[in-house]
Amino acid sequence: METSWTSVAWELLLPAVRAPRRQRRRLLESALRDAIRAGHVAAGTRLPASRALADDLGVSRGLVTAVYDQLRAEGYVEGRPGAGTYAAPGLAVPAPPGGAPAGPTAAGAARVDFRPGQADPRLFPRAAWAGLYRQVLTGAPDRALSYGDPRGVPELRAALADLLARRRGVVTDPDRIVVCGGVAQAFSLVSRALAAAGHDTVAVEDPGPPELAMLARTNGLRPVPVDVGAHGPDLTGVPARAALVTPAHQFPTGIAYPPATRAALVRWASTVDGLLIEDDYDGDFRYDRAPVGALQGLGPDRVAYAGSVSKSLASGLRLGWLALPDRLTDPVVDLKRADDLCGPVLEQRTLAAFLTTGRYDAHLRRCQRTYRARRDVLVAAVRRYLPAARITGIAAGLHAVLVLPGGDEAALTAAAEAAGVRVLPLRHYGSGPSPGFVVGYAHLTPDTITNTVATLAVAWR
Q: Residue 5's pLDDT is what?
């Protein structure tokens, strides 16, 4: 691998370093990116150390480090702890200019899942998590391996109270936080508590996640769809005293509820003596706008706030949380105890250590850079290959909405499937412009995103 790198390094990179100083970083990034895309630097090739490459090229080490950091964020290179920087695996080689774009099935490759709801599991901080887990396992007292508090271990609830106040503006304390098996269990617990208190309906956003409407039905509540519109739902006159909302980044449209809508929701909950269930599913990822604080901060006694690490760390961890109003805390804790006695203690202690040592904030910054770069690749690919389409909901989160100027949604979905691309139409989530598709990009490499959009353009043409 070292020989392969040496044979291409000077040819590819020297023109960039001979350019004017202000252009060098951009040109170095482009040269190395193109070399990896084209296969001149093969997947798995170990790149020179930043100091060595800087010396070879006669540039500053900081310049080379910045180039590596940018390409790492875009998914072209990956760092291996203690082992250096490598060209990332699985990057497709694009088709020659003027030819048909290389699609996901062009050479018998696996299908591409362009559906939303997935973070990139390759970003999971395995080494840091494993190190903290070993420390927790070694240092935990014997009693920590017995049944614990159904609300969750105290260390994690304290760390979450601090994190949510600092990053999301949530007003709570550790005693009103319940650690759950993801948002699915959180919503199930709240639904059952509401049903036991006499509620029989819950307002749900239209369009919105069908899985949560299903959970409402499973746990004794009838979902009542309410149109989201351009500014969020108007609950006036809705036959329900509880509502499930995603105000910071509505799923799937991607809008953020404006201040007037947020205030109106809290007033509604107070007027009907009701409850808002806030699903803050991706509140940490904002790109082109300032972070929007949690709705819960406007009415802590009227909002049950739910979140998880499914988008920030890994969905397989099954770690989420509820920040509850006082009157709802005891009923939910009783239901949680009946559900599973307590959650996984060692994983909760590990997450607590991950939060309190600053590793979580650092991980979020890395994910933010990576997902923003992939979002930019998606936007550029849509503009290039589907110029008549409109792409929305891109200021935040891990998905976007792609609206086409015409055509049959079912036929377009079938054409994408035949081309090896799995997509979900907007109608899967309720109402919305048609034909429209909700696409997830966070789990895909930049080249895969570009080639998949190109493949869709050919299939839909």
A: 55
Q: How far is CA 151 from each of CA 142, 154, 187, 332, rounded to the nearest angstrom?
A: 20, 8, 15, 9
Q: Alpha-carbon distance 318 to 343, whole Å?
A: 10
> Looking at residue 123, what is its pLDDT?
94
Quick one: pLDDT band at residue 67, thresholds 50, 70, 90? confident
Give one DSSP letter per residue of 368-431, joined into a string.
HHHHHHHHHHHHHHHHHH-TT-EEE--SBSSEEEEE-SSS-HHHHHHHHHHTTEE-EEGGGGSS
Which residue has 């370093």 as its token pair? 17
pTM greater than the 0.85 cutoff: no
Rounded to the nearest 10°, the torsion over CA 153, 157, 163, 166 is -160
Q: Is the separation of the CB atoms in 286 and 396 below 8 Å? A: yes
pLDDT tens for 352-389 read 999 999 999 999 999 999 999 999 999 999 999 999 99
Q: What is d(CA 319, CA 373) in angstroms, rounded to the nearest whole number? A: 27
3-state secondary structure of 114: coil
Query: For the segment 266-292, what is each residue's pLDDT rounded down to a tens digit?
Result: 999 999 999 999 999 988 898 887 778
Task: Report the distance separating Cα 392 and Cα 137, nearest Å.
Answer: 45
Helix axes 126-139, 359-385, angle to 10 degrees: 160
CB-CB contact of 292 with 254 (8 Å): no
What's the one-letter identity of residue 425? P
